[in-house]
Amino acid sequence: MSSTDYAAEIRDLRHTLHEIEEVSDIEQLQAEIDQLEKEAAAPDLWDNPDEAQKVTSALSHKQAELGRITGMGARIDDFETLIELAEEEGEPELLEDADSELAKIKEKLSELEIMTLLNGEYDAREAVITIRAGAGGVDAADFAEMLLRMYLRYAERRGWKTKVTDTSYAEEAGLKSATFEVNEPYAFGTLSVEAGTHRLVRISPFDNQGRRQTSFAAVEVIPLIETTDHIEIPENELKIDVFRSSGPGGQSVNTTDSAVRMTHIPTGIVVSMQNEKSQIQNRAAALRVMQSRLLLLKQEQEAAEKKALAGDVKASWGDQMRSYVLHPYQMVKDLRTNHEVGNTGSVLDGDIDGFIDAGIRWRASQRNQDED
Protein backbone atom coordinates (compact mmCIF):
# COMPACT_ATOMS: atom_id res chain seq x y z
CA MET A 1 0.00 0.00 0.00
CA SER A 2 1.37 3.42 -0.92
CA SER A 3 2.31 5.74 1.94
CA THR A 4 1.95 8.86 -0.22
CA ASP A 5 -0.17 11.70 1.20
CA TYR A 6 -2.19 12.19 -1.98
CA ALA A 7 -4.32 15.03 -0.57
CA ALA A 8 -1.18 17.07 0.15
CA GLU A 9 0.31 16.16 -3.22
CA ILE A 10 -2.83 17.33 -5.05
CA ARG A 11 -2.81 20.63 -3.12
CA ASP A 12 0.84 21.16 -4.14
CA LEU A 13 0.09 20.32 -7.78
CA ARG A 14 -2.80 22.80 -7.92
CA HIS A 15 -0.72 25.50 -6.21
CA THR A 16 2.12 25.03 -8.69
CA LEU A 17 -0.28 25.11 -11.64
CA HIS A 18 -1.91 28.28 -10.30
CA GLU A 19 1.48 30.01 -10.12
CA ILE A 20 2.25 28.92 -13.69
CA GLU A 21 -1.12 30.25 -14.88
CA GLU A 22 -0.47 33.62 -13.20
CA VAL A 23 3.00 34.00 -14.70
CA SER A 24 1.82 32.82 -18.13
CA ASP A 25 -1.11 35.31 -18.10
CA ILE A 26 -3.71 33.02 -19.65
CA GLU A 27 -5.98 35.90 -20.70
CA GLN A 28 -3.17 37.64 -22.58
CA LEU A 29 -2.12 34.34 -24.16
CA GLN A 30 -5.69 33.74 -25.38
CA ALA A 31 -5.83 37.29 -26.76
CA GLU A 32 -2.60 36.70 -28.70
CA ILE A 33 -4.03 33.46 -30.10
CA ASP A 34 -7.22 35.24 -31.18
CA GLN A 35 -5.17 37.90 -32.99
CA LEU A 36 -2.97 35.32 -34.71
CA GLU A 37 -6.05 33.35 -35.78
CA LYS A 38 -7.40 36.48 -37.46
CA GLU A 39 -4.08 37.01 -39.25
CA ALA A 40 -3.96 33.34 -40.28
CA ALA A 41 -7.46 33.59 -41.75
CA ALA A 42 -6.59 36.58 -43.97
CA PRO A 43 -7.13 35.67 -47.65
CA ASP A 44 -3.84 37.27 -48.72
CA LEU A 45 -1.75 35.62 -45.98
CA TRP A 46 0.24 33.40 -48.33
CA ASP A 47 1.07 36.25 -50.71
CA ASN A 48 4.13 36.56 -48.44
CA PRO A 49 5.17 32.95 -47.65
CA ASP A 50 7.86 33.94 -45.13
CA GLU A 51 5.44 36.08 -43.13
CA ALA A 52 2.73 33.41 -43.40
CA GLN A 53 5.12 30.82 -42.01
CA LYS A 54 5.91 33.06 -39.03
CA VAL A 55 2.22 33.65 -38.30
CA THR A 56 1.23 29.98 -38.51
CA SER A 57 4.28 28.89 -36.51
CA ALA A 58 3.59 31.45 -33.76
CA LEU A 59 -0.09 30.44 -33.67
CA SER A 60 0.77 26.75 -33.40
CA HIS A 61 3.28 27.40 -30.62
CA LYS A 62 0.93 29.56 -28.55
CA GLN A 63 -1.99 27.16 -29.00
CA ALA A 64 0.25 24.33 -27.81
CA GLU A 65 1.41 26.42 -24.84
CA LEU A 66 -2.18 27.19 -23.80
CA GLY A 67 -3.19 23.57 -24.35
CA ARG A 68 -0.38 22.30 -22.12
CA ILE A 69 -1.48 24.58 -19.27
CA THR A 70 -5.24 24.00 -19.52
CA GLY A 71 -4.72 20.29 -20.15
CA MET A 72 -2.70 20.02 -16.96
CA GLY A 73 -5.66 21.21 -14.91
CA ALA A 74 -7.80 18.43 -16.40
CA ARG A 75 -5.03 15.92 -15.78
CA ILE A 76 -4.85 16.83 -12.09
CA ASP A 77 -8.64 16.47 -11.86
CA ASP A 78 -8.40 12.99 -13.41
CA PHE A 79 -5.60 12.12 -10.98
CA GLU A 80 -7.78 13.15 -8.02
CA THR A 81 -10.62 10.97 -9.35
CA LEU A 82 -8.22 8.03 -9.67
CA ILE A 83 -7.19 8.44 -6.01
CA GLU A 84 -10.80 8.58 -4.84
CA LEU A 85 -11.63 5.45 -6.82
CA ALA A 86 -8.60 3.57 -5.50
CA GLU A 87 -9.41 4.46 -1.89
CA GLU A 88 -13.09 3.59 -2.24
CA GLU A 89 -12.42 0.20 -3.80
CA GLY A 90 -9.28 -0.55 -1.79
CA GLU A 91 -7.29 -1.63 -4.84
CA PRO A 92 -3.49 -1.33 -4.36
CA GLU A 93 -2.96 -1.76 -8.13
CA LEU A 94 -4.73 1.54 -8.74
CA LEU A 95 -2.49 3.27 -6.19
CA GLU A 96 0.57 1.96 -8.04
CA ASP A 97 -0.84 3.56 -11.20
CA ALA A 98 -1.43 6.73 -9.18
CA ASP A 99 2.21 6.91 -8.07
CA SER A 100 3.33 6.58 -11.69
CA GLU A 101 0.89 9.26 -12.84
CA LEU A 102 1.95 11.58 -10.00
CA ALA A 103 5.58 11.38 -11.14
CA LYS A 104 4.56 12.15 -14.72
CA ILE A 105 2.44 15.16 -13.69
CA LYS A 106 5.29 16.57 -11.61
CA GLU A 107 7.63 16.20 -14.58
CA LYS A 108 5.23 18.03 -16.90
CA LEU A 109 4.67 20.80 -14.34
CA SER A 110 8.45 21.20 -14.08
CA GLU A 111 8.62 21.63 -17.87
CA LEU A 112 5.87 24.27 -17.71
CA GLU A 113 7.76 26.08 -14.93
CA ILE A 114 10.85 26.17 -17.13
CA MET A 115 8.83 27.83 -19.92
CA THR A 116 7.73 30.60 -17.55
CA LEU A 117 11.41 31.41 -16.93
CA LEU A 118 11.99 32.15 -20.63
CA ASN A 119 11.00 35.79 -20.25
CA GLY A 120 14.14 37.60 -21.44
CA GLU A 121 13.94 40.24 -24.15
CA TYR A 122 14.92 37.86 -26.96
CA ASP A 123 14.05 34.50 -25.37
CA ALA A 124 11.10 33.91 -27.72
CA ARG A 125 13.36 34.11 -30.80
CA GLU A 126 14.75 31.40 -33.00
CA ALA A 127 18.48 30.81 -32.51
CA VAL A 128 21.75 30.85 -34.42
CA ILE A 129 24.45 28.66 -32.89
CA THR A 130 28.14 28.71 -33.80
CA ILE A 131 30.60 26.12 -32.52
CA ARG A 132 34.35 26.80 -32.78
CA ALA A 133 37.25 24.49 -32.02
CA GLY A 134 39.56 25.90 -29.36
CA ALA A 135 42.82 24.75 -27.80
CA GLY A 136 43.66 21.09 -28.30
CA GLY A 137 44.53 20.69 -31.96
CA VAL A 138 42.82 17.89 -33.87
CA ASP A 139 41.04 16.72 -30.70
CA ALA A 140 39.42 20.14 -30.36
CA ALA A 141 38.25 20.01 -33.99
CA ASP A 142 36.82 16.54 -33.37
CA PHE A 143 35.14 17.81 -30.18
CA ALA A 144 33.54 20.67 -32.14
CA GLU A 145 32.02 18.11 -34.50
CA MET A 146 30.82 16.04 -31.53
CA LEU A 147 29.07 19.11 -30.09
CA LEU A 148 27.46 19.90 -33.43
CA ARG A 149 26.03 16.39 -33.57
CA MET A 150 24.90 16.64 -29.93
CA TYR A 151 22.87 19.79 -30.54
CA LEU A 152 21.41 18.59 -33.82
CA ARG A 153 20.34 15.34 -32.13
CA TYR A 154 18.84 17.33 -29.24
CA ALA A 155 16.79 19.38 -31.69
CA GLU A 156 15.78 16.25 -33.59
CA ARG A 157 14.55 14.61 -30.37
CA ARG A 158 12.27 17.62 -29.78
CA GLY A 159 11.05 17.83 -33.36
CA TRP A 160 12.76 21.18 -33.94
CA LYS A 161 13.78 22.28 -37.42
CA THR A 162 17.48 23.02 -37.93
CA LYS A 163 19.53 24.29 -40.82
CA VAL A 164 23.32 24.10 -41.03
CA THR A 165 24.44 27.29 -42.77
CA ASP A 166 28.23 27.09 -42.62
CA THR A 167 30.88 24.44 -41.98
CA SER A 168 34.64 24.89 -41.98
CA TYR A 169 36.42 21.54 -41.91
CA ALA A 170 39.74 20.97 -40.14
CA GLU A 171 42.61 19.42 -42.12
CA GLU A 172 42.91 16.09 -40.31
CA ALA A 173 39.48 15.53 -38.74
CA GLY A 174 36.55 17.42 -37.30
CA LEU A 175 35.53 21.04 -37.72
CA LYS A 176 37.21 24.39 -37.26
CA SER A 177 33.73 25.87 -36.92
CA ALA A 178 30.09 25.30 -37.78
CA THR A 179 26.99 27.51 -37.72
CA PHE A 180 23.39 26.36 -37.72
CA GLU A 181 19.94 27.81 -37.14
CA VAL A 182 17.27 26.37 -34.86
CA ASN A 183 13.95 27.48 -36.33
CA GLU A 184 11.65 27.10 -33.36
CA PRO A 185 10.03 29.70 -31.05
CA TYR A 186 11.96 30.08 -27.79
CA ALA A 187 14.98 28.28 -29.21
CA PHE A 188 17.21 31.19 -28.18
CA GLY A 189 15.90 31.36 -24.62
CA THR A 190 16.28 27.61 -24.28
CA LEU A 191 19.69 27.15 -25.87
CA SER A 192 21.38 30.38 -24.80
CA VAL A 193 22.36 28.69 -21.52
CA GLU A 194 24.66 26.49 -23.62
CA ALA A 195 26.86 29.46 -24.55
CA GLY A 196 30.39 29.28 -23.21
CA THR A 197 33.50 27.11 -23.25
CA HIS A 198 33.07 23.34 -23.21
CA ARG A 199 35.95 21.04 -22.16
CA LEU A 200 36.60 17.45 -23.24
CA VAL A 201 38.95 15.06 -21.40
CA ARG A 202 39.63 11.67 -23.01
CA ILE A 203 42.23 9.29 -24.39
CA SER A 204 42.97 10.87 -27.76
CA PRO A 205 42.09 8.65 -30.73
CA PHE A 206 44.60 10.72 -32.71
CA ASP A 207 47.55 10.08 -30.37
CA ASN A 208 49.48 6.91 -31.30
CA GLN A 209 50.79 6.72 -27.73
CA GLY A 210 47.24 6.68 -26.29
CA ARG A 211 47.75 9.66 -24.02
CA ARG A 212 44.99 11.60 -22.30
CA GLN A 213 44.13 14.89 -24.02
CA THR A 214 42.20 17.92 -22.86
CA SER A 215 40.57 20.02 -25.57
CA PHE A 216 38.15 22.92 -25.75
CA ALA A 217 35.36 24.23 -27.96
CA ALA A 218 33.38 27.46 -27.75
CA VAL A 219 29.63 27.66 -28.25
CA GLU A 220 28.01 30.95 -29.25
CA VAL A 221 24.21 31.35 -29.21
CA ILE A 222 22.51 34.44 -30.64
CA PRO A 223 18.88 35.33 -31.36
CA LEU A 224 17.84 35.25 -35.00
CA ILE A 225 17.17 38.72 -36.35
CA GLU A 226 13.63 39.78 -37.25
CA THR A 227 12.58 42.47 -39.71
CA THR A 228 11.10 44.51 -36.86
CA ASP A 229 14.50 44.90 -35.15
CA HIS A 230 15.70 47.58 -37.58
CA ILE A 231 19.42 46.86 -37.28
CA GLU A 232 20.81 48.99 -40.07
CA ILE A 233 24.41 48.40 -41.17
CA PRO A 234 25.89 51.04 -43.53
CA GLU A 235 27.40 49.48 -46.65
CA ASN A 236 30.76 51.14 -45.99
CA GLU A 237 31.03 49.22 -42.69
CA LEU A 238 30.90 45.85 -44.47
CA LYS A 239 33.63 44.02 -46.34
CA ILE A 240 32.37 41.21 -48.59
CA ASP A 241 34.66 38.43 -49.86
CA VAL A 242 33.55 35.65 -52.20
CA PHE A 243 35.28 32.27 -52.18
CA ARG A 244 34.81 28.62 -53.09
CA SER A 245 33.02 26.44 -50.55
CA SER A 246 35.22 24.00 -48.65
CA GLY A 247 34.50 20.53 -47.41
CA PRO A 248 33.98 17.07 -48.83
CA GLY A 249 31.38 18.22 -51.33
CA GLY A 250 28.18 16.39 -52.12
CA GLN A 251 24.66 17.63 -52.70
CA SER A 252 24.53 19.79 -49.57
CA VAL A 253 27.72 21.73 -50.28
CA ASN A 254 28.02 24.17 -53.16
CA THR A 255 31.48 23.97 -54.75
CA THR A 256 31.22 27.06 -56.98
CA ASP A 257 32.60 30.49 -56.09
CA SER A 258 29.41 31.43 -54.24
CA ALA A 259 30.44 31.26 -50.58
CA VAL A 260 30.44 34.61 -48.82
CA ARG A 261 32.60 35.96 -46.01
CA MET A 262 31.20 39.15 -44.47
CA THR A 263 33.26 41.33 -42.12
CA HIS A 264 31.85 44.15 -40.00
CA ILE A 265 34.79 46.55 -40.06
CA PRO A 266 34.07 48.55 -36.84
CA THR A 267 33.76 45.45 -34.61
CA GLY A 268 35.77 42.88 -36.58
CA ILE A 269 32.86 40.40 -36.47
CA VAL A 270 33.14 37.87 -39.33
CA VAL A 271 30.31 35.74 -40.72
CA SER A 272 30.74 33.04 -43.39
CA MET A 273 27.98 31.37 -45.37
CA GLN A 274 28.42 28.64 -47.95
CA ASN A 275 25.51 26.20 -47.83
CA GLU A 276 22.97 28.14 -49.91
CA LYS A 277 22.79 27.56 -53.67
CA SER A 278 23.76 31.05 -54.82
CA GLN A 279 26.00 33.94 -53.82
CA ILE A 280 22.93 36.16 -53.38
CA GLN A 281 21.35 33.69 -50.96
CA ASN A 282 24.58 33.27 -49.00
CA ARG A 283 25.00 37.03 -48.78
CA ALA A 284 21.43 37.49 -47.49
CA ALA A 285 21.92 34.72 -44.92
CA ALA A 286 25.25 36.20 -43.80
CA LEU A 287 23.69 39.65 -43.40
CA ARG A 288 20.92 38.25 -41.23
CA VAL A 289 23.39 36.50 -38.91
CA MET A 290 25.59 39.62 -38.85
CA GLN A 291 22.59 41.70 -37.78
CA SER A 292 21.80 39.11 -35.08
CA ARG A 293 25.34 39.26 -33.69
CA LEU A 294 25.33 43.06 -33.65
CA LEU A 295 21.97 42.99 -31.90
CA LEU A 296 23.34 40.68 -29.20
CA LEU A 297 26.52 42.79 -28.93
CA LYS A 298 24.38 45.86 -28.31
CA GLN A 299 22.44 43.99 -25.63
CA GLU A 300 25.65 42.80 -23.94
CA GLN A 301 27.10 46.32 -23.95
CA GLU A 302 23.95 47.70 -22.37
CA ALA A 303 24.00 44.95 -19.72
CA ALA A 304 27.70 45.64 -19.01
CA GLU A 305 26.98 49.33 -18.53
CA LYS A 306 24.19 48.50 -16.06
CA LYS A 307 26.49 46.17 -14.10
CA ALA A 308 29.24 48.80 -14.02
CA LEU A 309 26.82 51.38 -12.65
CA ALA A 310 25.63 48.90 -10.02
CA GLY A 311 29.19 48.00 -9.03
CA ASP A 312 28.64 44.33 -9.87
CA VAL A 313 32.01 42.64 -10.14
CA LYS A 314 30.82 39.00 -10.04
CA ALA A 315 31.75 36.76 -12.94
CA SER A 316 28.73 35.53 -14.85
CA TRP A 317 29.32 32.53 -17.13
CA GLY A 318 33.02 31.82 -16.79
CA ASP A 319 35.34 30.31 -19.35
CA GLN A 320 34.71 26.67 -18.55
CA MET A 321 31.01 26.07 -18.16
CA ARG A 322 30.90 22.30 -18.72
CA SER A 323 33.31 19.36 -18.67
CA TYR A 324 32.88 16.13 -20.62
CA VAL A 325 35.18 13.55 -19.02
CA LEU A 326 35.52 10.23 -20.87
CA HIS A 327 38.71 9.09 -19.07
CA PRO A 328 39.69 8.06 -16.41
CA TYR A 329 35.97 8.01 -15.48
CA GLN A 330 32.72 8.85 -17.28
CA MET A 331 31.07 12.11 -16.25
CA VAL A 332 29.55 15.23 -17.80
CA LYS A 333 29.28 18.05 -15.27
CA ASP A 334 28.06 21.64 -15.55
CA LEU A 335 30.29 23.84 -13.43
CA ARG A 336 27.63 26.53 -12.91
CA THR A 337 24.70 24.38 -11.81
CA ASN A 338 26.61 21.28 -10.60
CA HIS A 339 24.21 19.14 -12.64
CA GLU A 340 26.05 15.98 -13.65
CA VAL A 341 25.36 12.79 -15.60
CA GLY A 342 27.43 9.60 -15.70
CA ASN A 343 26.11 8.38 -19.06
CA THR A 344 28.38 10.40 -21.36
CA GLY A 345 27.25 8.53 -24.47
CA SER A 346 23.64 9.54 -23.91
CA VAL A 347 24.60 13.20 -23.37
CA LEU A 348 26.70 13.34 -26.54
CA ASP A 349 23.76 11.75 -28.36
CA GLY A 350 21.60 14.78 -27.52
CA ASP A 351 20.14 13.92 -24.12
CA ILE A 352 20.93 17.30 -22.57
CA ASP A 353 17.47 18.32 -21.29
CA GLY A 354 18.60 18.08 -17.68
CA PHE A 355 21.57 20.40 -18.29
CA ILE A 356 19.42 22.93 -20.14
CA ASP A 357 16.65 22.92 -17.53
CA ALA A 358 19.19 23.36 -14.72
CA GLY A 359 20.88 26.14 -16.71
CA ILE A 360 17.60 28.01 -17.21
CA ARG A 361 16.82 27.82 -13.50
CA TRP A 362 20.38 28.91 -12.66
CA ARG A 363 20.10 31.90 -15.01
CA ALA A 364 16.78 32.93 -13.46
CA SER A 365 18.34 32.85 -9.99
CA GLN A 366 21.27 34.96 -11.23
CA ARG A 367 18.86 37.52 -12.66
CA ASN A 368 16.96 37.64 -9.37
CA GLN A 369 20.21 38.22 -7.48
CA ASP A 370 21.16 41.04 -9.85
CA GLU A 371 17.75 42.68 -9.33
CA ASP A 372 18.13 42.41 -5.54
UniProtKB/TrEMBL annotation:
It is found in: Cytoplasm. The modification N5-methylglutamine is found at residue 251. The keyword Ribosomal protein does not apply. PANTHER family: CLASS I PEPTIDE CHAIN RELEASE FACTOR, PEPTIDE CHAIN RELEASE FACTOR 2. HAMAP family: Rel_fac_2. Belongs to the prokaryotic/mitochondrial release factor family. Peptide chain release factor 2 directs the termination of translation in response to the peptide chain termination codons UGA and UAA. This is Peptide chain release factor 2. The gene is prfB.
